[in-house]
């Protein structure tokens, strides 16, 4: 009960803080000759409705920036700053509306540090902060002659536009308002990009530059270059970059901010708590942001994103990872006196000296050895990429690239890295960007101390709150709290009934409930609505999936758009995949016409990448526990997306000594999975690890190759498909005897044999002999050095 009392006091105090902050006296406008001074704490401009405030914000010791912020946010959230790169110094600094109509920022002892509206003449009569957050100079006729919306800093507000002449420019770091290295702007090709503009080099990191503009859903034909965010949370751009917040609709205060970590986030404000929640993020992983770890630095997941230095290098600045790593040796190496440190699953994106096709490891090494500009090279398959700069390093288990860094032989650094990296302990911020509470807690402690005399009253009020909260707290309120955490849109049950026409079109049915087709309010966007059945069992699975799926984002995983928790109803809203599940196409009579070999191979690789991400890359590692064609959905281009992964229980994370072997495991209360795809350990009640998913995936690979289903046989033949393939191989039958005859020989024999051998590795009875999913990805993509057992397998005749 003491916990509930503390929560009640916390809520009441937070409410008191919000009321106090929103009721501060403020100025409505500045007229000619008037000023706002650092030395007068009450000098704050407030918009007509009180949503925004403007005044001086401390940015350093005795340094101030004139800023606009959201009044009701618990932590002062600056959305615009006039002089971010040249702060005003001293208590005598002030913002002055000059008699000539110009707006001047004067620094104590330094004079003018910023100016706006110069040369507009005597027509200007006032400075006013609008309810939109736009700071404007107005004329006698009511016209706006200057506005802050025309010079955004790191934030775009509803109603504000980005044009060919404006951009968002990130802060330097958390708490450092100076201009940073990341910007969001239209490039010369009329497309909006996220760009790293560092001290040494500039590069685009979103959308990816290794795919075409149109593949990313953009266009470069519209030269108007304009983008805006509306008051309902919808972003519309001339290059077709369109997205909406997960809580789409009128109501919450919102902001689109390019944060200091290089990620663009759309936030909504909870007016009750004063906290911000991210309600949209671009489809990009943290380690894909350029410049994050600086020169030579490598971003990796341990399991949170973290910057690291290679052996022979140390962190250049203990306070700033963007400065990268500094070598502990002289980089000017003479030919014949160098070694190369090898890193698997690692790449330094971009900065290639050249591209060499069909290159061997030795020829690539020799080319880098002989070129004094070359700092290292990457090998992917048979392609070689010598580098003149080692920037944008990232290491992920699904990355098939091998990186070789050039170092002097005299350093004694080992040629083989063995997976070892030097960690300096500073983590990158994760995708969800949790809002720090520490400033609030400090403020709250001080506030409680100041109100000590009212303690008795607060206790009484707290007890009343506890009784009320305890009485009313239900699944709907729990769902609302979950929405604040993961940023999903919460739907009402009535909305879902209307969207699905009273759940009239069922498109699927599984162990957790039925799936229905629905259409959002816009009348165009189709969704899949999963209605969980069985209140006792469904509730646990529902909360498990909602808690996990909000932190998981991958191109080969189905995206969830929202949820409903109302009474006994538990529903999840997913993206709708046009081509349904893999089983409906693979086992159809005309399967070969729809799924040719190229598509089957792409489905195999994409599904493997999705599983590798679940097992080893995402911040909440999970097992799927039911990998089968029915849970592999296909989009309009037959690209695979795994579904139902959030239903499995969250896994524990274990790391063996030295960090060389990671194991994912879970305690499962009941057997999950489907006969024909279940690993042997399910049958004998052994501990279930990620290797159970590897086994199931291996079965799916066999189905993709043969066109035969692993189910539909008697109970004693649960592994009949595996036995059939093994018998064919023991009889030394050719690939034509095993590949789906409907393909009529239209397949790549080398590729098919590769997939078959990978499948047989995956379905080994001893789980310890099965490869990890990241290794499977590498093998499928042709990196045969990924697995030591590869050479021990035989080939079909």
From TrEMBL:
Domain of life of the native organism: Eukaryota
User: Where does the Apple domain start and stop, copy by copy?
Assistant: 333-409
Enzymatic reactions: L-seryl-[protein] + ATP = O-phospho-L-seryl-[protein] + ADP + H(+); L-threonyl-[protein] + ATP = O-phospho-L-threonyl-[protein] + ADP + H(+)
Recall the GO molecular function terms of this protein's record: ATP binding; D-mannose binding; protein serine/threonine kinase activity
Looking up SMART domains in the UniProt record yields: B_lectin, S_TKc
According to the UniProt record, one GO cellular component term is: membrane
UniProt cross-references to PANTHER family, sorted A to Z? OS07G0415500 PROTEIN (PTHR47974), RECEPTOR-LIKE SERINE_THREONINE-PROTEIN KINASE (PTHR47974:SF4)
- What is the protein named? Receptor-like serine/threonine-protein kinase
Organism encoding this protein: Spirodela intermedia (Intermediate duckweed)
């Amino acid at each position: 009960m003491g916990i509930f009392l503390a929560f009640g006091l916390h809520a009441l105090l937070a409410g008191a803080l919000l009321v106090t902050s929103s009721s501060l006296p403020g100025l409505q406008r500045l007229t000619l000759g008037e000023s706002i001074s650092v030395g007068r704490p009450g000098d704050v401009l407030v918009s007509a409705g009180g949503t925004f405030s403007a005044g001086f914000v401390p940015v350093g010791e005795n340094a101030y920036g004139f800023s606009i912020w959201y009044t009701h946010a618990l932590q002062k959230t600056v959305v615009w700053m006039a002089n971010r790169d040249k702060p005003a110094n001293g208590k005598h600094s002030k913002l002055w509306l000059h008699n000539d109509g110009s707006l001047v920022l004067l620094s104590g002892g330094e004079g003018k540090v910023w100016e706006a509206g110069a040369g507009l003449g005597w027509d200007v009569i006032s400075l006013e902060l609008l309810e939109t957050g736009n700071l404007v100079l107005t004329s006698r006729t009511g016209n706006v002659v200057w506005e802050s919306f025309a010079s955004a800093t790191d934030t775009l507000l509803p109603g504000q536009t980005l044009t060919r002449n404006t951009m968002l420019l990130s802060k330097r770091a958390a708490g450092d308002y100076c201009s940073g290295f990341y910007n969001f702007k239209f490039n010369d090709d009329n497309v909006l990009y996220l760009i790293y503009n560092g001290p040494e080099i500039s590069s685009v990191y979103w959308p990816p530059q290794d795919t075409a503009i149109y593949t990313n859903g953009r266009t470069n034909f519209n030269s108007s270059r304009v983008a805006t965010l509306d008051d309902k949370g919808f972003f519309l751009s001339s290059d077709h970059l369109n997205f909406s917040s997960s809580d789409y609709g009128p109501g919450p205060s919102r902001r689109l901010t390019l944060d200091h970590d290089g990620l663009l986030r759309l936030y909504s404000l909870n007016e009750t708590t004063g906290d911000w929640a991210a309600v949209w993020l671009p489809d990009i992983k943290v380690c894909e942001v350029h410049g994050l770890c600086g020169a030579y630095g490598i971003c990796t997941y341990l399991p949170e994103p973290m910057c690291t230095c290679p052996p022979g290098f140390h962190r250049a600045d203990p306070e700033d990872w963007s400065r990268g790593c500094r070598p502990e040796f002289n980089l000017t190496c003479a030919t014949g006196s160098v070694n190369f440190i090898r890193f698997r699953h690692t790449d330094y994106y971009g900065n290639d000296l050249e591209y060499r096709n069909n290159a061997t490891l030795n020829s690539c090494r020799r080319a880098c050895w002989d070129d004094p500009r070359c700092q290292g090279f990457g090998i992917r398959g048979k392609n070689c990429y010598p580098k003149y700069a080692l920037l944008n390093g990232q290491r992920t288990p699904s990355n098939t690239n091998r990186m070789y860094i050039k170092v002097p032989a005299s350093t004694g650094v080992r040629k083989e890295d063995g997976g070892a990296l030097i960690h300096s302990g500073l983590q990158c911020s994760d995708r969800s960007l949790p809002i720090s509470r520490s400033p609030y807690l400090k403020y709250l402690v001080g506030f409680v101390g100041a109100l000590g005399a009212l303690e008795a009253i607060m206790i009484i009020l707290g007890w009343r709150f506890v009784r009320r909260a305890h009485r009313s707290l239900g699944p709907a309120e729990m769902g609302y709290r979950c929405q604040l955490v993961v940023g999903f849109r919460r739907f009402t049950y009535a909305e879902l009934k209307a969207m699905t026409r009273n759940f009239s079109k069922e498109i699927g049915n599984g162990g957790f409930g039925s799936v229905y087709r629905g259409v959002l309010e816009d009348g165009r966007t189709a969704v899949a609505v999963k209605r969980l059945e069985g209140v006792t069992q469904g509730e646990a699975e529902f909360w498990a999936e909602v808690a996990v799926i909000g932190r998981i984002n991958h191109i080969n995983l189905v995206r969830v758009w929202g949820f409903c928790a109302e009474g006994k109803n538990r529903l999840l809203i997913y993206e709708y995949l046009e081509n349904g599940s893999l089983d409906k196409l693979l086992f159809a009579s005309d399967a070969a016409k729809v799924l040719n070999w190229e598509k089957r191979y792409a489905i195999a690789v994409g599904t493997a990448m999705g599983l590798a991400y679940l097992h080893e890359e995402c911040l909440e590692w999970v097992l799927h526990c039911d990998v089968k064609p029915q849970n592999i959905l296909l989009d309009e281009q037959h690209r695979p997306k795994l579904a139902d992964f959030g239903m499995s229980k969250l896994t524990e994370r274990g790391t063996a000594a030295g960090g060389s072997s990671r194991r994912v495991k879970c305690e499962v209360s009941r057997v999950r999975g489907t006969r024909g795809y279940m690993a042997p350990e399910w049958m004998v009640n052994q501990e279930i690890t990620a290797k159970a998913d590897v086994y199931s995936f291996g079965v799916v690979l066999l189905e993709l190759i043969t066109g035969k289903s692993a189910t539909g046989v008697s109970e004693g033949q649960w592994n009949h498909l595996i036995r059939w393939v093994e018998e064919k191989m023991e009889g030394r039958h050719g690939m034509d005897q095993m590949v789906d005859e409907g393909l009529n020989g239209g397949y790549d024999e080398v590729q098919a044999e590769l997939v078959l051998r990978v499948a047989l590795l995956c379905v080994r009875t001893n789980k310890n002999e099965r490869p990890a999913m990241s290794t499977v990805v590498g093998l499928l993509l042709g990196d045969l050095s990924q697995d030591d057992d590869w050479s021990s397998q035989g080939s079909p005749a």
